[in-house]
Amino acid sequence: IVLTQSPGTLSLSPGERATLSCRASQSVISSYLAWYQQKPGQAPRLLIYGASTRATGIPDRFSGSVSGTDFTLTISRLEPEDFALYYCQQYGNSPLTFGGGTKVEIK
Amino acid sequence: QVQLQESGPGLVKPSGTLSLTCTVSGDSSSSSSWWSWVRQSPGKGLEWIGEINHSGSANNYNPSLKSRVTISIDKSKNQFSLKLNSVTAADTAVYYCARGPNYFDSWGQGTLVTVSS
After folding, report:
1. Partner residue opposite A43 with nearest CB, options B60, B61, B107
2. CB contacts, 8 Å: B102 with chain A
3. CB neighbours (10 Å) of residue A25?
4. How confident is the model at residue B1 (pLDDT cuts 50, 70, 90)?
5. Pick from A82, B8, B58, B89: most CB atoms within 10 A?
6. How many other β-carbons are positioned within 10 Å of the β-carbon of residue B89?
7. How crowded is the C-beta side of A75, counted as CA atoms within 13 Å?
8. What angle do CA A13, A54, A73 make, to 5 degrees?
9. How many beta-carbon pairs under 8 angstroms link A with B?
10. What is the pLDDT of residue A30?
11. Nearest by CB to B60, which of A42, A44, A94?
């Protein structure tokens, strides 16, 4: 399954709302999709799994949703530490695949 | 709190074999865990390489790499390993080990492996 993330870069200010998209090339079984955050020089960090379940310790400003083959990660109010790269990953079909990423940068 | 740490050579010659080990500590859910390798290169983003279950009785590999990859586990040492043979410059990447199954809730810090003569 090919995951297409958009936009490639999102330029926003702290306090603004971020909406990141991940579109699957075919149906993802049981909404088996995860979102990760990655900062420079660090490993990805799990944010969301099952399309909408926050991982342990993830603030509630992060939320995930799904409509058909379109998945969305929303950050309700951007904090300074949220400016990073974000990846989606599907695990409903083998091989596991990742999207190309969305960079959220400070405007 | 599970911790993972990759180790291995940072430079591999073309046509050689890339060998990495991941040491796991603090895993309280070991019997249900699957252990994966994921790599990240500028040209291809994040790519799942494959996984092995806790007992070592089952593997799954990415078809794009399956002919060149072996993932094994040494439970006595709390380690699992990656071997990728016949490497080329396209295999240059940061290699991560991670805990699954399916999605990855714990990752190693990553290790850069460069394929060059």
Report:
1. B107
2. 32, 34, 49, 91, 96
3. 12
4. confident
5. A82
6. 10
7. 25
8. 40
9. 52
10. 82
11. A94
d(CA B108, CA B3): 7
pLDDT tens per residue across span B69-82: 999 999 999 999 99
Write the residue in A43, A46, A89 that is nearest to B109 by C-beta: A43
- pLDDT above 80 for B44: no
Place of tokens 């790269």: A85
Structure tokens at A90: 């599907």
Instruction: State the amino acid at position A51 in one-letter form.
Output: A
Query: Under DSSP, is residue B85 helix (H, G, I), strand (E, B) or coil?
Result: coil
* Least confident span in A23-32, B21-30, B43-52, B106-115: B21-30
Structure tokens at A63: 């939320």
Share of residues in chain A with pLDDT > 70 (%): 100
CA dist A88 and A104 (Å) reads 14
